[in-house]
Amino acid sequence: MSRRRVHLGVLGVLAWAAAAALSAPPAAAAERRFLYVATPGIRNYVDYGGIGVIVFDIDNGHRFVRRFPTWRPAPGNEGQAGFPNLSFLQLLFGYRDLDELRQAYADCWYGDNDTRAVLTAMFPKQSGNVLPII
Predict the structure, then answer these.
(1) Which residues contact 95 (CB under 8 A, 6 or more apart)?
(2) Using the 8-state DSSP alphabet, how is residue 10 labeled?
(3) Is 57 inside a domain boundary?
(4) What H or E segment, with its residue span, contains residue 90?
């Protein structure tokens, strides 16, 4: 083998190694794990719990990192009806009617008779079947 071919071969390998080193992705920073918790507030009292997302650092003993407020109601804008937690699902799927729901949950409320009429008409109590998916 001639000396010239050896030099060209070495230069080729060096060029290939340099290109590979330049195109390699940068070393990734240490991955951090966070826990995101949605805070719905209590009824329409956003001062107690607030409405937003709270971030905790899992790897650092669930240390508080940041709070992101997502929505703040305008003063006097309470809405037409209120349902705590997942109680509205019972109305939605017909398990309970509006009066039964108000008896079971003290925090369920509606603003006026028009709102009551709409909720009663849209979500009547009905029997349902739950079938397993196999």
Answers:
(1) 89, 125, 128
(2) H
(3) yes
(4) helix 87-92
Name the 3-class secondary structure at 4: helix
pLDDT tens string 20-68 = 555 655 656 678 899 998 876 665 566 666 678 889 999 999 999 998 8
What is Dmax (Cα atoms) for the chain? 100
Q: Determine, yes or no, domain membership for 76.
A: no
Query: Within a 13 Å sphere around the CA of 11, how many CA atoms are in the beta-carbon half?
Result: 6
Q: How far apart are CA 105 and CA 121, in angstroms?
A: 20
Q: Considering the entire predicted model, what is its pTM?
A: 0.44
Total domains present in the chain: 2
What residue numbers bound the domain in which 118 lies? 81-122
Same-domain check for residues 65 and 85: no
